[in-house]
Amino acid sequence: SKILVLHGPNLNLLGTREPEVYGRDTLADIDRRLVEQGKRAGVGVSTFQSNAEVALIERIHAAKSDETAVIVFNPAAFTHTSIALRDALAAVGVPFIEVHLSNVHAREPFRKHSYFSDLAIGVVAGFGAKSYELALEAAISRLTGNKN
Ligand code: DQA
Question: Which residues bind substrate (predicted)?
């Protein structure tokens, strides 16, 4: 079994994109650390980013048959807009953890609503790149049988 880390739109710009909100790590930095974290736990971690809703939907569909056990997902702006991505996750039934770098509850009101949180195992927000590491730790614990 393995873990898929999915990143939504504009996250390819991490490092230079509003660094005061999202930090200075690039997406490549974050992905490299997550793959390492998986290796240390003996769990395969793959990563995928797209700015396109259709590509994210198709990657989620593929997760149904490629042995993905858990998805760690930062839907980015699609968090607040995408019924189609929500429906994709519901359709494949692969459990997922929702991640945000920023504390979406401390920002504009339109960021408070998520189409994903009620279906997620849990939500991690507000810890910058560390949000992904905490979510991955939780995903790994589920797979390796440690309670979390
Ligand atoms: C984000 C928060 C979203 O509101 C925003 O649209 C993003 C990134 C985060 O990681 O903090 O693109 O998901």
Answer: 74, 80, 87, 101-102, 111
